[in-house]
Amino acid sequence: MYLALTIGFLVISQICESHVVVRDTEDESFITPNYVHYDDLHTLFKKLENEHPDMVKLYSIGKSVGGRDMMVLRIHKNVKEPAALTPMFKYVGNMHGDETLGRQLLIYLAQYLVYNYGKNKRVTNLLDKTDIHIMPSMNPDGFENSQEGKCSSLGRYVGRQNENAVDLNRNFPDQFRDNYVTFANRQPETVAVMKWIMSNPFVLTNADCCVGSKSPDDQLFEKLALLYASKHPVMTKGNACNDEYFDRGITNGAKWYELNGGMQDFNYVHSNCYEVTFELSCCKYPPVEQLAGEWLNNKEPLLSYIEAVHWGVKGLVADENGSPIKDAVIMVTGINHNVSTTANGEYWRLLLPDTYEIAAYTYGYKPATPVQVVVKENQTTIQNFVLQKSPNTESTNQGLNNTKFRTTKISEH
Question: What angle do the packed helices 121-129 and 291-307 form, to 10 degrees?
Fold first, then answer.
């Protein structure tokens, strides 16, 4: 997998018709040279929710060690009831509490999306078609313990780690060592994110961890990384930080450094979600004077990356009566990584432009005949499947022996 890399912080990421009359303008009056701290962030997000109740929903996925809410702002045209097949996208920032730029950029991004809906065509189209979830800080305690202007971690990694002095970027289950997902002996922040990931069908996100060997979707990850880096005026040069050079501003995580227990691998192995890491600053906690310039550098990459959630194929899997089929497997020939359907029978499969053979399978049903699907640049192809009940479940199951099903085993202990 690949990282879009530049100038030490990491940001951890049902089409409906719009009848809004849109003027192509922008409101960026909210860009101020200040970091928004925890209490003020809650006030800001509640204000956005109260002012735009049909479009904005503030929720918490859990509490940090220090008792702070892990806040998420959900933004969509109809946040209370998104239409079928609307893909879910998430941005997660500040996994290391002292890496603060991405946190502030996500706060700016949330305001930008809300305040420009109905004013800017691109933003309006994005919120009409995408269910966006923004978590500025996965480590709110660490952020509050960090020191503005420090370009490296404090002693004993205060701020970088959570309140229990644990690096959250090493605290997820390891895909090679753990035979099942367990919440025991993990930090509350990690458990909250794990449950959030496994209970929501996110399609695309960013992450702040690195990975090892190539994944089956290596070319897709590279394209996603290049998408962000190529839109960033500094990142694309590959030499923003003096001691390192990265061709086109990206690198494979394993070539940079390896780690166990990262969130990116957890998403890829235990959900349908794809993640790319963004390193946004050579300085962990840049001075406030740099914030406006960093917003200008990252606004286009942040928006373009969200739009990538619409690459590839999506559709519904149902039985002959039209009832949705949950946990059906969507298999793409030649790519050894499957996705599965939601309780509503929906699926989303990110793919690069090409022609693919795709099929749907599940136990107790006859496998769907594989179909050829053409994926075009920056477009979504719709491919639905209807599965017939099999009178002979045993023979159906034998036909699935070579199909890779996701079988995540969960233990609370």
Answer: 50
Q: What is the pLDDT of residues 102-148, one digit of tens each?
A: 999 999 999 999 999 999 999 999 999 999 999 999 999 999 999 99
Residues acting as catalytic residues:
279
Rounded to two decimals, the pTM is 0.86
| Poorest-pLDDT segment among 4-18, 29-43, 104-118, 157-171 | 4-18
Rounded to the nearest 5 percent, the helix, strand and coil shares of the chain are: 30, 20, 50
244 with 338, same domain: the answer is no
Cβ pair 371, 358 in contact under 8 A: yes
Strand partners, 5: 279
What is the per-residue pLDDT for 322? 97
- Whether residue 324 is found in the same domain as residue 285: no
Pairing relation of β-strands 346-349 and 380-382? unpaired
Interatomic CA distance for residues 61 and 68, integer angstroms:
11
Q: For 290-338, how does the pLDDT look when each residue is reduced to its tens digit (9 = 90+)?
A: 999 999 999 999 999 999 999 999 999 999 999 999 999 999 999 998 9
First to last CA, the chain: 31
Rounded distance, CA 332 to CA 360, Å? Answer: 9
Give yes or no: residues 265 and 383 share one domain.
Answer: no
Give me the residue label for tokens 């390193």: 279
Please tell me the total count of domains within the chain.
2
Helix (H, G, I), strand (E, B) or coil at 6: coil
Give the DSSP H/E element, type plus range, for residue 126. Answer: helix 121-129
From the number of C-beta atoms within 10 Å of its C-beta (0-12, 13-18, 19+), residue 232 rates as buried
Collapsing DSSP states into helix, strand and coil, what is residue 4? strand
Domain that includes residue 101, residue range: 2-310
Distance of CA 99 to the CA centre of its chain: 18
Scored b (16 or more CB within 10 A) or e, 33-58 reads eebbebeebbebbeebbeeeeebbbb
- Identify whether residues 240 and 356 lie together within a single domain: no
User: Each residue of 348-358: pLDDT tens digit?
Assistant: 999 999 999 99
Same domain, 140 and 250: yes
Instruction: Read off the pLDDT of each residue in 45-58 and give the average, rounded to a whole number.
Output: 99
User: What CATH number is associated with residue 289?
Assistant: 3.40.630.10
Residues 76 and 161 in one domain: yes
In this prediction, residues 23-49 reach a mean pLDDT of 94
CATH number, residue 341: 2.60.40.1120
